[in-house]
Design a protein that fits this description.
Oligomer: single chain
Distance between the termini: 69 Å
Helix content: 40-55%
CATH superfamily: Vaccinia Virus protein VP39
Structural class: alpha/beta
Order of helices and strands: HHHHEHEHEEHEHHEHHHHE
Shape: globular
CATH class: Alpha Beta
């Protein structure tokens, strides 16, 4: 009997310890400074880059296929969003703003494959430094440290505005949209992808769902989530948009990314081990949040929203 109970007791102790570590090391949103600090840390420890490559966002799995290489799926996501949003209709040399550019993965694709002149901004100095290191000379990309809620560009400076998985970190979604659309020239193309919750007013969360949402907010420096319809309305009513906003839920195409992000550590164990014992602990620490994200997206509590409109 004892032999049967021992594994169960160890599992319970492990979960209690993990819960304690989560509370101590929670990455709660306090200000834009906490977002910058979190991304500085993730960039400097190199764990995400070693596991995920240049793209710190979900991948695109055509027709729900799961036998696609995780890193290739991320590249495919960029091409799919460019095509879906109409950005590929812009001529070479067009000016594109990448809001929340990370370490520059999307910016480099926009410049290399589509011939655009890309400006990437992020609030993380470490990300800007790494983006510059990864960008070959001669590629039309430049990177700057800048707050997305206070863009230092003139009105209508860009032919296209692009943002992937940055909005969930913004504490003022209206200001976020205002600043992006302000810098978009009339007739320009706008493309955005983000993590959204379902409409929590129309469909209030259960007690369990509230707990899950709390963890998803506190672990990865998110102030709040809004629904796809809520953000679509923000874009639609903005004075700088043409009014016609199209949005879709890409859960079906992106959901395999969550398990793949864990499996990647099994496929490439040396990527973690080469960074030392602390990297192993850090990678294990992220697994519960990734599993919660997978559950939330599969259950429809979370939705992967994509948006397009014209300036």
């Amino acid at each position: 009997m004892f032999e049967l109970l021992l594994p169960f007791c160890l599992l319970v102790l492990f979960l209690i310890a993990l819960s304690f570590i989560w509370r101590i090391n929670a990455r709660k949103y306090i200000s834009s400074g906490t977002v910058a600090s979190a991304y500085d840390a993730w960039t400097q420890d190199k764990l995400l880059e070693r596991l995920w490559g240049e793209h710190i966002h979900l991948g695109f799995y055509s027709l729900g296929r799961k036998n696609i290489d995780f890193r290739k799926a991320k590249v495919q996501f960029v091409h799919e969003l460019i095509k879906w949003s109409g950005l590929d209709k812009l001529p070479k040399g067009s000016r594109i703003l990448d809001v929340g550019c990370g370490i520059g993965g999307s910016s480099r694709i926009l410049a290399k494959y589509y011939g655009f002149n890309v400006t990437g901004i992020t609030i993380s100095p470490a990300q800007v430094k790494r983006a510059r290191e990864l960008t070959p000379s001669g590629l039309n990309c430049n990177f700057q440290v800048m707050d997305a809620l206070d863009l230092k560009f003139e009105d209508g400076s860009f032919d296209g505005v692009w943002s992937v998985e940055a909005g969930a970190h913004m504490n003022d979604k209206i200001k976020f949209a205002d600043e992006m659309l302000r810098t978009l020239r009339p007739g320009g193309f706008f493309a955005l992808a983000d993590w959204n919750s379902r409409d929590l007013v129309a469909h209030p969360p259960s007690f369990l769902e509230k707990l899950v949402l709390k963890q998803l907010l506190e672990q990865w420096v998110h102030p709040d989530f809004n629904s796809i319809n809520e953000f679509s309305n923000i874009l639609r009513t903005n004075k700088n948009s043409a009014g016609k906003v199209i949005s879709e839920n890409w859960n079906f195409y992106t959901n395999p990314s969550w398990y793949d992000s864990i499996i990647e550590g099994i496929r490439r164990p040396f990527a973690i081990l080469s960074l030392g014992p602390l990297a192993v602990i850090k990678s294990i620490r992220e697994i519960p949040t990734i599993l919660l994200m997978n559950w939330a997206f599969k259950k429809g509590l979370m939705e992967f929203g994509v948006y397009k409109c014209r300036g």
